[in-house]
Every structure is written in structure tokens, then in C-alpha cells.
Design a protein that fits this description.
37% of the residues lie in helices and 15% in strands. It is an alpha/beta fold. The chain is globular and about 50 Å long.
């Protein structure tokens, strides 16, 4: 089995619609794909209605968190999307995205970049506006050569010249809320140092003690030595090691299935989840 547990659609900051994403997952030879848009589940119904036969959809979200001033992301899988406490927190994060993005556009303008809010809104479309959309605007303007190049201290990285904070969850609260909604939590790209500051290993141990289920080991932003350290750390802490592409369509260079999760680990994730079931592909299922 080929299992990719971290992808994004136009419901947040990917370029494939949810339906296109599951069809592209089939074309890429995946057996299982998780849709984990940022702080939203808006793409789940469309994706579930289009899953091709032979592909299984895992519903999820990537939750924006912050610990001691350091941003981090938690992948949440197979939770009850209507559980009120978790839904309320996701909406707080989502509702803060537009004011934050507008403020970042304002900072860029102060830095002499001729970016306009209308340009960013066009790029975001119906998705949850975020830094990748602003980064793409910088690419269009020729300020940077790629979306990744915008995520530096010079521009949009945490603490960068144009960075603006947004409402984010305390990760311990996030783990508790996801578990209460029947879901499973995995720390996304925990040592992606090229993105900025990362939390110390001691914080990962504290999260594990609080109920964190796993850490994303195999990821494009982890080099070989980092993956080896994370795999060892997962063993030490009793965490599930996962692998994923973090696919964003054409917005990033990674491909669907570039990194994958072991079938036994996937089986344990589904065993632990009680909030929702994976969607078996028939091309006509609706949530």
C-alpha cells in the first residue's frame, strides 16, 4: 500500500480542488490519501464525493498552533468535524486569517513591494487565505523566484520583516480537543528548521505525555540525518512515525506520494480514531 497522510487543496492553500486532489492521488498510484487543509474541513465533502474506486480518503486538518512563541502544526485525523469545542477553535483561527493577511500586505507595501490585497484575494480564491497565497503574489511580482524563497526572514518566515501573528491554538489544548473529538494527532514536520524556529525535543516529549499520537518523520523539509533522529525519537517516546508529501499542487515542488506512511502505522491510526471513518472510494460517496 502507498499511503500519503498530508495534502492540501484549494479549500486552504493548495492548487488542486478537493475532487482533483483525490483523482490525482489515484493517478499517482496512492491507495490512501489524507486531506489535511489548514484549519478547515470545507473540502471534505467534495473530496469524499469524488474518491475513485481503489483509493481511500482520510479526512483531517492541519491545525495552527504556537508554543512559547514558536509556531507549529498538528495534523489531526478522523475527528468529528462537528464537535463544538474543536469547531469553535478552528473558526477562531480561520476568522483571523483575513485580517492577518491584510496586515502582512500592509507591511510588504511599507517595504516597497507593490502588492495589493486584491491580488492576494484572487490567488486565494475560495481557500483559507494564508502566507502561501501572499508568497505566490511575490512570485508574480518578481520579488522572489519561488514560493519557498518567500519563507525567509527577509519576507514571510516567522519573525520575518512582513510577518504578522494570528490566533493559534496551544498545542496541548489542540491535542486534548482532537482526542475529545475522537481524532488522532501527529506533529507535522517538527524539525523543519528551514521554515524558522522549531520547538525543542523536550516539548515533543511533553506533548507525547499529553496524548500526542505521532510525529511526521519522512518529509521534504527533513534531511536524512533529521529523519533518522526523529525516527529514533519516535521510538523513545512511543510515537507513531509517519511520512507524507505535504502536497500543495503546483504551489510547491513536492509530488503526491513523494514520502509515504507504513501500512502498519496507518492501521494503528485508524484503530485509534473514533470520530470518523476513512472513506472508501466509489466515486459517489458523500459525507
Amino acid at each position: 500500500m502507498r499511503i500519503d497522510l498530508h495534502t492540501h487543496s484549494t479549500a486552504s492553500d493548495g492548487t488542486d480542488s478537493p475532487a482533483e486532489l483525490v483523482r490525482n492521488a489515484a493517478a499517482a498510484g496512492l491507495d490512501v490519501v489524507a486531506l489535511t487543509d489548514h484549519d478547515t474541513t470545507r473540502g471534505h465533502a467534495e473530496a469524499a464525493g469524488a474518491v475513485p474506486e481503489g483509493v481511500t480518503l482520510v479526512t483531517g486538518a492541519e491545525l495552527s498552533c504556537r508554543l512559547d512563541g514558536v509556531g507549529l502544526h498538528l495534523l489531526a485525523y478522523l475527528f468529528d468535524a462537528e464537535e463544538p469545542d474543536l469547531l469553535r477553535e478552528r473558526e477562531l483561527v480561520r476568522d483571523d486569517r483575513v485580517p492577518r493577511a491584510r496586515a502582512m500586505v500592509g507591511k510588504l507595501q511599507e517595504l516597497g513591494v507593490p502588492v495589493e490585497w486584491e491580488q492576494v484575494a484572487r490567488i486565494a480564491g475560495n481557500g483559507s487565505v494564508g502566507r502561501p497565497h501572499i508568497a505566490e503574489a511575490l512570485v508574480e511580482l518578481g520579488v522572489v523566484s519561488s514560493v519557498s524563497d518567500a519563507f525567509t526572514p527577509l519576507w514571510l518566515a516567522d519573525g520575518g520583516r512582513a510577518y504578522v501573528e494570528k490566533h493559534e491554538l496551544d498545542p496541548f489544548t489542540a491535542v486534548r480537543l482532537v482526542k475529545a473529538a475522537g481524532g488522532v494527532t501527529v506533529f507535522a514536520h517538527p524539525l523543519a528548521v528551514k521554515r524558522g524556529r522549531v520547538v525543542p525535543e523536550s516539548a515533543m516529549a511533553e506533548l507525547a505525555a499529553c496524548g500526542l499520537d505521532g510525529i511526521e518523520v519522512d518529509h521534504m523539509d527533513h534531511d536524512e540525518a533529521t529523519r533518522a533522529r526523529l525516527r529514533s525519537l519516535a521510538g523513545e517516546l512511543g510515537l507513531l512515525p509517519t511520512g507524507s508529501s505535504d502536497y500543495h499542487g503546483s504551489r510547491k515542488t513536492c509530488r503526491l506520494g513523494e514520502y509515504t506512511t507504513d501500512p502498519e502505522i496507518y492501521g494503528e491510526i485508524t484503530r485509534r480514531a473514533t470520530g470518523a471513518f476513512p472513506v472508501m472510494g466509489t466515486g459517489g460517496v458523500r459525507l
